[in-house]
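Reading a protein record of the kind used here takes only a little practice. The integers have meaning only within a learned vocabulary of local backbone shapes. With that in mind, consider the following protein and its fold in token form:
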Amino acid sequence: MLYFKLRFFLFYILLLVLNINYVVTEFITASILGGVVLGGGLFGWNTVKDYTYCRYTECCNDKHVPYNLSRLKVSLSQKMFGQPLVNELVNILVAHKESIKDVNRQNKKALVISLHGWSGVGKNYAASMIADAIYAKGMQSRFVKMFMGKKDFDCSDMEKSKKELMATINMIVSSCPTSLIIFDEIHDMCPTILDTIKPMLDHHHAVDGIDYRNSIFIFISNIGGPQIATNLLELYDKGIKRNEVEFHHFEPIIRRTSYYTGGFEKSSTIAQHLIDHYIPFLPLEQHHVEMCALAEFRALGVLQPTEEMMLDALSIITYGPSEDQPIFANNGCKRFVKHIPYVIQKYKPKDEL
């Protein structure tokens, strides 16, 4: 027994001395450490791996995939404005996480979420918050993959695009069953691309030997933005307040519009009800935009911007849906990312330039 303890200890010291990093493959490490584990029976493989290989590279364990949904709740409450239904993402993900952890309530399928709304209302921001909460490296995690509309899919060679898509997702999810796959700009995507991943989203124990049931797929698009805005105005006319809206007020119109648009066009993901949650991002009103601007100033170190600075920042925002109804910000908060740093520089005292 002492011999095997000493053997593991010496190997662990060797790892520290050599500072083994990403070049070391999991296969080689598994082979060496496997001899220690099998020979001595001292440690479980996962324990050995966590304290050796996983100290030098990202692994699919609780350290690198903490699934900290309390962090998501805080992020949404502090950084997402005017989106009452988006806050429900926390409950949606908590339910999914509990089924991962509880063997008696295993997930029956992958979690599929579709985010819809005008540009600049926070869809990509919400997706990045989800990644930051689930993975220690956030969007930089090797277990997170984002595909972009036209950029990642060649519509002139669909078969090649589909094969590459399948291979990429297979590789990611096989390395971590709790991976996050994001499809952005679906409004610009080739029709039928999403049908390629239909088996991964459906109620299957495994596809080609890979279990997708604990993974998450997020679709992001501008599809349905105008319809969401029109519907919200109609709800206002009926006396329904913004924080009283429900998913059922928007899902039918989002589904109907999506089925005839972009990458969703006649897609089996919609026709066969594989999307679990359609999340409407509501168009922002003036006070929401002001909150966005203030948050951006504070994130850049200006805790109390002057009234003049705020007016300058807000001057780039136009409102619609028409001149007669200047209710919603046409581009949300999107332009603040570049404009507010300029405003800060513009109003900086000359002796600080």
User: Anything to note?
Assistant: Residues 131 and 138 are 5 Å apart (CA to CA). Strands lie at 111-116, 144-148, 180-184, 216-221, 277-280, 319-322, 325-329. Residues 69-282 form a domain with the Rossmann fold fold (CATH 3.40.50.300).
